[in-house]
Amino acid sequence: MGKLEGKVAVITGGNSGIGLATAKRFVEEGAHVVITGRREKELKEAAVLIGKNVTTVTADVTRLEDLDRLYAVVKEKHGHIDILFANAGWGEVALLETATEAHFDKTFDLNAKGTFFTVQKSLPLFKDGGSIILTSSVANVRGDIAFSAYAASKAAVRCFARGWAMELKDRKIRVNSMSPGPIETPALEKVGLTAEQVEQAIAHFASQVPLGRRGKPEEIAAAVVFLASDESSYVTGVDLAVDGGMAQV
Ligand SMILES: NC(=O)c1ccc[n+]([C@@H]2O[C@H](COP(=O)([O-])OP(=O)(O)OC[C@H]3O[C@@H](n4cnc5c(N)ncnc54)[C@H](OP(=O)(O)O)[C@@H]3O)[C@@H](O)[C@H]2O)c1
Predict the structure, then answer these.
(1) pTM, full prediction
(2) Alpha-carbon gap, residue 48 to 35, rounded angstroms
(3) pLDDT tens per residue, range 51-62
(4) Arithmetic mean of pLDDT, 136-147
(5) pLDDT at 243
(6) In the beta sheet, which residues pair with residue 81?
(7) How far apart are alpha carbons 189 and 120 in whole angstroms?
(8) Can you give the pLDDT at residue 141?
(9) pLDDT tens column, 186-236
(10) Which of 15, 42, 69, 90 to probe ligand 1 with, by most ligand atoms within 8 A of CB?
(11) Are residues 2 and 30 in contact, defined by beta-carbon separation less than 8 angstroms?
(12) C-alpha 122 chain-centroid distance
């Protein structure tokens, strides 16, 4: 029997990278998953890869009406939620001196506001005793050049886990954040660097990881299964670092 047998899980950003690897693993553990992302074609391809027990909803987490539509589908199909992995996120590089208002707003809209309302709007459907996992980042405690808005938005996510663990404790809903280090996903190709700069950034980040390499999405998925399942029944409010030691030593 799987660790998530019969559970209903919603995963935002489930068509790529960490979210997709986690959706695949959740289904292997017996869950039914509802995955979202903005790109419909990638969502359909992800569903084929996952193979069974998967529903796709094209939705942008920065748009509250999209979140309402997502949860209407979940309600109609399953009637409730046991697990929410609020994972959609990312950002672009920008130095303080030249960053625009649009850069700041886009970063916080996606990582902070998107996560906030993804969780808020799930609550009417949430089963007492469920688990909420938020994707923060190793960046939430670091000072990386050109990543300050991203890092601050991910620090907000870490703070959400603390506050919501308290707000939802009477419903026995556990809330934790999970902070990946540098992971082998398409994310770094989307931050606004040239291909050469991406290669340099990969080498730079890997050199700062005690384990000496980038992590694999499947290694993050394993940690998320732990936080989603009863294996972590006495864990709430934490920020679980899955970073090869990057921010720990
Ligand atoms: N990779 C790393 O090194 C790393 C490190 C620390 C933290 N993280 C965090 O891990 C999470 C997953 O990233 P990843 O590395 O797996 O990158 P990824 O492969 O690029 O996945 C990002 C996911 O988020 C979705 N997404 C982006 N903007 C969205 C929006 N406005 N509405 C809905 N979905 C949206 C994307 O789908 P669409 O494009 O189709 O919308 C995609 O499914 C992010 O929160 C990221 O900040 C990643």
Answers:
(1) 0.98
(2) 12
(3) 999 999 999 999
(4) 96
(5) 98
(6) 126
(7) 30
(8) 97
(9) 998 888 889 999 999 899 988 999 999 999 999 999 999 999 999 999 999
(10) 90
(11) yes
(12) 15
The DSSP bridge partners found for residue 36 are 12, 57
Closest CA to ligand 1's atom 30? 60
Cα separation, 11 vs 133, whole angstroms: 10
Closest alpha carbon to 150 in 185, 180, 173:
180
List, for residues 146-175, the tens digit of each pLDDT value: 999 999 999 999 999 999 999 999 999 999
Name 102's Cβ contacts closer than 8 Å, sequence gap at least 6.
none
Distance CA(54)–CA(47), nearest Å, equals: 6
Taking alpha carbons only, the member of 97, 70, 65, 89 closest to residue 81 is 70
The residue annotated as part of the active site, out of 90, 147, 150, 205, is 150
Helices (H), the chain: 17-28, 40-50, 64-77, 101-108, 114-120, 148-167, 195-207, 217-228
pLDDT confidence of residue 242 = 98
List the domains of the chain with CATH numbers: 8-240 (3.40.50.720)
